[in-house]
Amino acid sequence: MKTGHKQNNNLVPAFSTMIAQALGSSLTITTESFAEMFAEDGVMEFPFAPPSIPDVLKGRSAIANHLKWLPELLTIDSFSEPQVYRSEDGKTVILEFDCIGKATATGKPYNQRYVSVITMHNGRIQRYRDYWNPLVALSIMDNDTVTATSDTKRESTHA
């Protein structure tokens, strides 16, 4: 396991804590919910998402619905401490971090690198662009998982 990783087997709360700490005073609400950090009309984008995974989620409820199936897909052992970069105007935060985990269905290792570009507005996330390697994600999935995420893509891309 890499040095500097925080261990936690609960994906969404561990991720939420890491994001809230990285955003610091840019985030003006206190919550343990990643979805609640978004503006009501916030957008989450996955520019490199493969066809079976949503590429855009519009609205806080669509983001929350998408996040519901992630713990069934992955068990995350740790996140690295993120490298944090802030724009001069404070409206954009860029994070670089890694996670180590495994696929729930296949047991295959999920070791992923992320770059997240976060745009803030009125103390909440307005836009979250999540850059990651789709080949890593596809390599851990079985056919049932790909089918389920394809169904989720059709259902969750819009609020």
Can you put this structure into words, describing what you see?
- InterPro entries: NTF2-like_dom_sf, SnoaL-like.
- The chain has 159 residues and is an alpha+beta fold.
- The chain has a single domain (5-156), classed as Nuclear Transport Factor 2, Chain: A (Roll), CATH 3.10.450.50.
- The protein is built from four helices and eight strands; from the N terminus they run E-H-E-E-H-E-E-E-E-E-H-H.
- Strands 1, 2, 3, 4, 5, 6, 7 and 8 form an eight-stranded mixed beta sheet that branches.
- Helix 2 (60-73) packs antiparallel against helix 4.
- The chain is globular, with a radius of gyration of 15 Å.
- Mean pLDDT is 84; it is low at 1-9 and 145-156.
- Report the count of strand segments: 8
Q: Give the CATH architecture.
A: Roll
Radius of gyration: 15 Å
Tell me the CATH topology.
Nuclear Transport Factor 2, Chain: A
What is the helix content?
A: 25-40%
Alpha-beta content class: alpha+beta
Q: What is the helix/strand order?
A: EHEEHEEEEEHH
Number of helices: 4
The biggest beta sheet reads: 8 strands, mixed
Low-confidence parts, pLDDT < 50 over ≥5 residues? 1-9, 145-156
CATH class, named: Alpha Beta
Q: Domain count, please report it.
A: 1
Organism: Psychrobacter aquaticus CMS 56
Pfam families: SnoaL_2
Protein name: SnoaL-like domain-containing protein
Domain SnoaL-like: 32-128
